[in-house]
Task: structure prediction
Amino acid sequence: MKRFRAWVLVLAGCAFPGCGGQQAAAQPALARVVSHAEGYRDLIKDGLCQAKGEDLLLDDMEDNDYLIADAEGRLASWFTFNPGCTQFPIGDKTTAFKMIPGGADDSRYMAATIGKGCQASWSGGGFGFQFLSHVEVKGGVLDSTPCASGYDASGLDGIAFDIAVWRDDTDADPPAADPQGVRRSVRVQVCTSDVKNFNCHGYNLTLPDDEWHTVRLTWKQLQQEDWAASTQKVAFNPARLDKIQWKAMVPTFHFAIDNLKFQKGSAHTPPLKSHIRGISYESLETDYHNWKARHLFTCPDGRAEVMINRTFGTGTSESTGYGLLLAVAMNDQATFGALLQGFQKRKNTHGLMAWSFPVCGDALDDANSAADADLDIAMALVQASQKGWKGADYAGLGKVLITAIKDFATTTCNSKLTVLKLGDAWGGCKEQTQYLNPSYFSPAFYREFGKFIPEQAAFWTKLAQDSYQLLGQYQSKMDGLVPDWGFSDGSLREPSKYGYEACRVPMRIATDFLWHTSADAGRVLTNLYSLVDSVGGPYETTLYAASAKDLNSCMLGGLALTAIAGNPAQVAPWVDQWLSTILHAPTDTLGDNPYFQGTMRLFYLLLATGYFAPLSGG
Result:
């Protein structure tokens, strides 16, 4: 990596900070490596346009030429593209794309590029390769013939590669200077021969640092961008691959890839039944690491906190709870331990977590708790202890927190109904002019808490039963939907709507259905499914109170998963509809890029694939 950084400084003519100094001695040799453009040598070669699925290698760059590896007869040539940028190296009809010394692990070569001055409206340039049936070089000019109908990779599941992205002098910028986290972002594009107007399917990838990272993507994760009219959008067809390319998302860019392969199958088996195909555990890891790169921040004292708003630097107990649950599900002990430090630092006098605070700061915006967050943190502690993780007394911490939730975040209304409050200082019974949040109700976790602390089992069982009683009353007043807010007598808090609180209800209830085959959960989900199905599916935006532009995983993912109970055969097509229609432009605030929607994406995908599971046996 250091050799590559020195090479960049030479090519840029010291345009980036850091030129000279300790790296200056290496510059002459590195300049000779890349300062002379190379033409093509005469060549005639034919390629096959269908994958056998036996040799998955696309290119490890070790042959140091402009063609991908000759595996299974594949043929493709590397190229560069840019919107009026200064870019190195160049790969076009007369200049052969040049690999650069260095790479991931012990690699000798990598595909790399640097550029600056691109048109801001188009973002940056990049590089890629095109699948070919024939290539011929005469007189130093490359003449290539693409595969007529595209390269057929229909028997394969996706691609995997190593990637590093550098930000040059912007590394020290505060999050507010990069509110969407795009300065270390690259869009991976897989173009097919049936795509119109260059709107290739792709994935917006964000890296947390300038180290090498392995990325695994399945075809199902790829989406077209939002600027094209709906008539120009097509379903991704892996039988018609044309190009695979990497495109910077900012006008000044600096990145490299290595060890590019197709993917086939998964080394992991989900603990619960998967309701969809085409999403592997490895691809979920990519989504998870993308989420961490955008939202997780490590503080100087070693704790980690999840930032919900990069402009204001805000963190919450909710984001901490989600982070801990995701870390357990993805077997990420290091992140779990760092987030737990943040929880320990933010506990209030009841032993619950203060709900709002400045990330990495010492102060609290509000010391009162939010019950959903404490439930998630407690469940994460239970699962960490069940995994046998070391580093803290997770079982002991979990039992203390579960008991504190019981004592300070629940109450009894009219001497009979047990309800979950909004936190230790708000929410509760209607007769006390308080209200409730149905998306906080977590019956799956209640059942697990009862197993974990048997002497509390009767309490948690009753809380689950009473929660379902309220959900049924709410649904009866909303044609099967649930409201953002309601009262303990089953009435709705106006204005009643299915919004950004209620869109989490399917996650909470689907968890109970999948973990415990709960009949109550099945009824709630079936009620939701019946309504969604009656209007044509989750894409119908009249179902929720948000605008028609709110096409994101909280809205679409939750409604798609209602089919798990209502009609399991409908889950896969609805998930396809969900993943193919959400907004995902890098600066979009209504799609999955922001913290909340991106978090819901992960949870709904984990549920749909069977990777969010109980460790108690269910």
